[in-house]
Amino acid sequence: MRTKQDCPTDIAHARLTVAAAALAFGLPYVDVFAHRRLAASDIFLRQMAMYLLNTTYDFNLSRIARIFERDRTTVRHACQLIEDQRDSPVFDDTLETLEQFLLTAPAPSTDHEIEMA
Question: Which pick of 12, 47, 96, 106 has the fewest CB atoms within 10 Å?
Protein backbone atom coordinates (compact mmCIF):
# COMPACT_ATOMS: atom_id res chain seq x y z
CA MET A 1 0.00 0.00 0.00
CA ARG A 2 1.35 3.41 -0.91
CA THR A 3 2.03 5.73 1.96
CA LYS A 4 2.98 9.36 2.33
CA GLN A 5 6.55 8.20 2.92
CA ASP A 6 6.80 6.70 -0.57
CA CYS A 7 9.42 8.44 -2.62
CA PRO A 8 7.81 10.40 -5.46
CA THR A 9 10.72 9.44 -7.71
CA ASP A 10 9.87 5.73 -7.22
CA ILE A 11 6.44 6.31 -8.70
CA ALA A 12 7.94 8.44 -11.48
CA HIS A 13 10.38 5.63 -12.31
CA ALA A 14 7.48 3.16 -12.35
CA ARG A 15 5.36 5.33 -14.68
CA LEU A 16 8.32 5.80 -17.05
CA THR A 17 8.97 2.07 -17.03
CA VAL A 18 5.33 1.25 -17.81
CA ALA A 19 5.26 3.79 -20.65
CA ALA A 20 8.55 2.53 -22.13
CA ALA A 21 7.40 -1.10 -21.97
CA ALA A 22 4.07 -0.21 -23.60
CA LEU A 23 5.88 1.54 -26.43
CA ALA A 24 8.40 -1.27 -26.94
CA PHE A 25 5.73 -3.97 -27.08
CA GLY A 26 3.21 -1.96 -29.08
CA LEU A 27 0.66 -1.87 -26.27
CA PRO A 28 -1.48 1.10 -25.29
CA TYR A 29 -0.44 2.86 -22.10
CA VAL A 30 -2.89 1.96 -19.35
CA ASP A 31 -3.02 2.85 -15.70
CA VAL A 32 -1.68 -0.41 -14.27
CA PHE A 33 -1.86 1.22 -10.84
CA ALA A 34 -5.69 1.42 -10.95
CA HIS A 35 -7.77 -0.74 -8.66
CA ARG A 36 -9.81 -2.44 -11.35
CA ARG A 37 -9.68 -5.70 -13.22
CA LEU A 38 -6.99 -5.59 -15.91
CA ALA A 39 -6.86 -7.28 -19.29
CA ALA A 40 -4.12 -9.86 -19.87
CA SER A 41 -2.03 -7.41 -21.92
CA ASP A 42 -2.28 -4.87 -19.08
CA ILE A 43 -1.17 -7.46 -16.54
CA PHE A 44 1.79 -8.30 -18.80
CA LEU A 45 2.66 -4.60 -18.88
CA ARG A 46 2.59 -4.38 -15.09
CA GLN A 47 4.69 -7.54 -14.77
CA MET A 48 7.19 -6.14 -17.26
CA ALA A 49 7.43 -2.89 -15.28
CA MET A 50 7.96 -4.80 -12.03
CA TYR A 51 10.74 -6.83 -13.63
CA LEU A 52 12.44 -3.79 -15.14
CA LEU A 53 12.29 -1.84 -11.88
CA ASN A 54 14.03 -4.77 -10.21
CA THR A 55 16.69 -5.37 -12.86
CA THR A 56 17.31 -1.85 -14.14
CA TYR A 57 16.92 0.31 -11.04
CA ASP A 58 17.74 -2.41 -8.49
CA PHE A 59 14.49 -1.81 -6.57
CA ASN A 60 13.90 -4.65 -4.14
CA LEU A 61 10.68 -6.68 -4.28
CA SER A 62 9.14 -5.00 -1.23
CA ARG A 63 9.76 -1.56 -2.68
CA ILE A 64 8.13 -2.55 -5.97
CA ALA A 65 5.22 -4.15 -4.12
CA ARG A 66 4.55 -0.85 -2.33
CA ILE A 67 4.60 1.11 -5.60
CA PHE A 68 2.05 -1.19 -7.24
CA GLU A 69 0.14 -1.90 -4.02
CA ARG A 70 0.71 -5.63 -4.39
CA ASP A 71 2.20 -8.35 -2.25
CA ARG A 72 5.94 -9.00 -2.48
CA THR A 73 5.26 -12.58 -3.62
CA THR A 74 3.21 -11.21 -6.55
CA VAL A 75 6.23 -9.16 -7.61
CA ARG A 76 8.50 -12.20 -7.29
CA HIS A 77 6.10 -14.21 -9.47
CA ALA A 78 6.01 -11.43 -12.08
CA CYS A 79 9.81 -11.25 -12.18
CA GLN A 80 10.07 -15.03 -12.61
CA LEU A 81 7.53 -15.03 -15.46
CA ILE A 82 9.39 -12.32 -17.35
CA GLU A 83 12.80 -13.88 -16.68
CA ASP A 84 11.54 -17.20 -18.08
CA GLN A 85 10.57 -15.45 -21.33
CA ARG A 86 14.12 -14.16 -21.81
CA ASP A 87 14.96 -17.50 -23.43
CA SER A 88 13.43 -16.04 -26.59
CA PRO A 89 16.15 -14.06 -28.41
CA VAL A 90 13.67 -11.47 -29.73
CA PHE A 91 12.14 -10.93 -26.30
CA ASP A 92 15.59 -10.76 -24.70
CA ASP A 93 16.78 -8.18 -27.25
CA THR A 94 13.70 -6.05 -26.59
CA LEU A 95 14.34 -6.20 -22.84
CA GLU A 96 17.98 -5.29 -23.27
CA THR A 97 16.98 -2.27 -25.34
CA LEU A 98 14.44 -1.24 -22.69
CA GLU A 99 16.98 -1.63 -19.91
CA GLN A 100 19.51 0.53 -21.77
CA PHE A 101 16.87 3.17 -22.50
CA LEU A 102 15.78 3.32 -18.85
CA LEU A 103 19.38 3.55 -17.63
CA THR A 104 20.04 6.53 -19.88
CA ALA A 105 16.74 8.32 -19.22
CA PRO A 106 17.00 11.44 -17.07
CA ALA A 107 16.36 10.88 -13.39
CA PRO A 108 13.02 12.19 -12.13
CA SER A 109 13.31 15.65 -10.63
CA THR A 110 12.78 16.09 -6.92
CA ASP A 111 12.43 19.83 -7.39
CA HIS A 112 8.69 20.48 -7.69
CA GLU A 113 9.18 24.16 -8.53
CA ILE A 114 10.78 23.83 -11.94
CA GLU A 115 10.06 26.90 -14.03
CA MET A 116 8.84 26.42 -17.57
CA ALA A 117 10.35 28.83 -20.11
Answer: 106
Exposure letters 41-65 (e unless 16+ CB within 10 A, then b): ebebbbbbbbbbbbbbbebebebbb
* CB-CB contact of 16 with 105 (8 Å): yes
Whole-prediction pTM value?
0.84
Residue 30, classified by CB atoms within 10 Å of its CB into exposed (0-12), middle (13-18) or buried (19+), is middle
Q: What is the pLDDT of residues 27-37, one digit of tens each?
A: 888 888 877 78
Rounded to 5°, angle at Cα 29 from 6 and 60: 35
> What is the Cα–Cα distance from 53 to 89, expressed in whole angstroms?
21
Per-residue pLDDT tens digits for 48-62: 999 999 999 999 999
Per-domain boundaries in the chain: 8-104
